[in-house]
């Protein structure tokens, strides 16, 4: 059954006023809020989930991609390939060296969860060390006083000794981890976390969920969606590699093409896989870090642009040029937040690299050599790692080699367009935000009012 049209819903005038064509809302307090284009990362988790539905509906109704479109599921389990099965057997034979990988070959959502768990562990250890040092510091003044006391007052000293530690340790008792430390996707200002003192938000605790048929598990999930933007879901390895290359590799000729040290890359890979806090410094080879980033993307069980949307991304090239960018934007909205955020960070980095491709003259008149890595060259290298579908057999690959060559050309063209237009692709225009708010208004009016007040405060 086709998805219901959100545009057909008329907001009740007693609560809101929607001025068509202007995308201006009035909140319950009477404050006027005009919607503007915003980065997708600035939307709340609830808005991003509803944006997926709105984008899915528009793709089905307005875009002729000649293929079936589905919303990718986060962290899908894939069947193990023969190579991975052999690798796992080898690990079982060598149990002394076996460890659970934390980064490579893992679903993206799991990698981010591992990074989050590691950070929480670090924060907890840091707090424990601080509490211990504070406790010791609080005992030092008491120790100095005790040395100056006479033996005749030993009884009073003993009594004060039994009281002082309790008094000093009480303020330093470790408190439960603050809300900000909890796992972001289910933690910050969610419907189930609303305060009793926030009467308007408290009503959202009992809000009904979308009227479409949903399972109990889906309803429980949606009820915990955050009403504020969640933390950026980018793997530590990806961000570290991008930062290092932005700082040290932009003028390196042939970056991503020149070979690296397999031994050093293997060592870096193992450190990240063991969950070690790897700090990429200037002495680390640019080519080793570049190879590490490519390996991470290559070894992902599901490509960053997902197999479910492979054909849809390729078929955007069949559309009119003026329609391609908007369709790519809608497809990106369908991606799970972790895929979307990681893709944004990667495209941002590749765009910076491409801007340094040509030779130029510095401010002091010196000639600066370009890295020669244009958006086309970068798309040629990264495209097959970002967008691919599983090969069924080597025989099929050889039989359809010419067709696969055409698909490879299409993949490069799609990724090149993404690199060149990454900033526009991750902005959410007012008309789509409007559709999201209207769809939420049908079920969660109090939440809409909260979101409008937050947008108003951000714009001001």
TrEMBL record:
Where along the chain is composition biased (Low complexity)?
A: 150-172
UniProt xrefs under Pfam families: RhoGAP
- Report the superkingdom from the record: Eukaryota
Q: Which Gene3D superfamilies does the record associate with it?
A: Rho GTPase activation protein
Record flagged with keyword Magnesium: no
Annotated GO biological processes are: positive regulation of intracellular signal transduction; signal transduction
Which GO terms label this protein's molecular function in UniProt?
GTPase activator activity; phospholipase activator activity; phospholipase binding
Entry's Gene Ontology cellular component terms: cytoskeleton
Which keywords, in A-to-Z order, does the entry hold?
A: GTPase activation
- Provide the Rho-GAP domain boundaries: 225-426
Q: Quick one: where's region Disordered?
A: 146-185
Which PANTHER family does the protein's record reference?
RHO GTPASE-ACTIVATING PROTEIN 6, RHO-GTPASE-ACTIVATING PROTEIN 6 FAMILY MEMBER
Which protein are we looking at? Answer: Rho GTPase activating protein 6
- Recorded source organism is Pan paniscus
Task: State the taxonomy lineage.
Answer: Eukaryota, Metazoa, Chordata, Craniata, Vertebrata
| Encoding gene per record | ARHGAP6
